[in-house]
Amino acid sequence: MAKLTVQNLSGLAVNVKPPETVLRAVQATGTDWMHACGAKGRCTTCRMEVLAGMENLSPESAPELKYREAGRLKTKERLACQCTVTGGEVLVRVPKPVQLPHQKYT
């Protein structure tokens, strides 16, 4: 089983079972994560910054490639609704522009 740690959510550690997306795995813990389009890859509100373990994420989806080409995803960002953790460990953080107002970030 793969492990995802969200650094600025008090180090939330989540076991992710492929093909479960990062978004679904985090939500299964009862933690809210922004996703304005309903997890369909149509916005970028669920984006996350990958600090370590990018090689342990699934290949970029068509929506991620589209947003990256349009400059809406930075080099180290992925969409939580589109990617899965394929193995090993991944360390991410939620960027400030997409943090939920009621969620406590560290």
From TrEMBL:
It comes from the Bacteria. InterPro entries: 2Fe-2S_ferredoxin-like_sf, 2Fe-2S_ferredoxin-type, Beta-grasp_dom_sf. Residues 1-98 form the 2Fe-2S ferredoxin-type domain. One of its GO terms (molecular function) is iron-sulfur cluster binding. Gene3D superfamilies: 3.10.20.30. This is (2Fe-2S)-binding protein. It comes from Adhaeribacter soli.
